[in-house]
Write a structure and sequence with these properties.
The protein is of the alpha+beta class. 29% of the residues lie in helices and 27% in strands.
């Protein structure tokens, strides 16, 4: 299965998928309006019946920084490499856009470490903390781990 840019018709399914994990406190919830507003950030993977089974967003914060967020893979499709396909799609897009650094906040740091991310103290991510985290009801003790990926010169 391949990652594709999300379409307007995917939003309801993405919202349901993301918030199914948020309901279990495994990721942050996303409002339907937020997904619509940021639709161009999202990649999806669809199954043979055109249903969204996985999604992720690459959200640009500044000229030199983007965030991978809302990575969700349907429970019955996990352990099939779909998360890896989506992370690679985000990294490829960031590199193509010339963004040198990508980070994520997650409760599952080992997954991202397998993709070349390294853990950092959240204080190293001030744009994230002050642009979004401070509005979160879990701030400042959410338990998410910050990870960062730097592109080497000449590519990832």
């Amino acid at each position: 299965m391949n990652a594709e840019k999300a379409r307007i018709g995917d939003v309801q399914q993405m919202h349901k998928l993301i918030n199914s994990f948020a309901d279990k406190d495994e990721m942050l919830a996303r409002a339907l309006s937020e997904i619509y507003e940021n639709l161009r950030d999202f990649f999806v993977i669809r199954d043979s019946s055109d249903q969204v089974v996985a999604c992720v967003a690459l959200h640009i914060l500044w000229k030199d920084l983007a965030e991978i967020r809302s990575l969700a893979v349907n429970h019955d499709k996990q352990d099939q490499g779909l998360g890896s396909v989506l992370v690679r799609a985000c990294l490829n897009e960031a590199e193509a856009l010339g963004i040198p650094t990508v980070f994520c906040m997650t409760y599952k740091p080992s997954f991202f470490e397998r993709h070349g991310f390294r853990q950092v103290d959240k204080i190293e991510l001030p744009r994230k903390v002050w642009s979004e985290c401070y509005r979160c009801p879990k701030f400042p003790d959410c338990g998410e781990v910050g990870l960062i990926y730097h592109f080497r010169s000449g590519g990832a």
